[in-house]
Write a structure and sequence with these properties.
Elements (H helix, E strand, L loop, with lengths): L1 H22 L3 H14 L1 H29 L4 H26 L1
């Protein structure tokens, strides 16, 4: 009776350890798949950021024009801030894309 229990225990331990060995083979494939999925989003995201930068540039141009035509003395500061925002968006998108790809 005791020998039978030992054999059952030994067989169950061997079976459970074999399951662990079979489960370890797919880790590298999962990491590669996740990397491909993440890098696949960079091109559309970069184009989206460029489009947002273009819209921000147009809005900034209209606001600067309105200030300039109304004679506001603060026009150069407004133009510099909008221009800086557009440059930041473009440079950030380019640097992030080159850093991760």
């Amino acid at each position: 009776m005791v020998k039978k229990r030992k054999k059952i225990l030994l067989a169950s331990i061997a079976l459970l350890s074999a399951f662990g060995v079979f489960a370890q083979g797919n880790g590298n494939a999962g990491i590669q798949e996740a990397t491909q999925m993440v890098t696949g989003y960079f091109d559309p995201a970069t184009k989206l950021i460029y489009a947002i930068g273009a819209v921000v540039g147009l809005i900034g141009g209209v606001k600067v024009y309105n200030k300039f035509s109304s004679g506001d003395p603060d026009t150069s500061k407004t133009a510099a801030s909008w221009f800086g925002a557009c440059i930041f968006l473009i440079v950030a998108a380019t640097i992030l894309r080159s850093f991760f790809l």
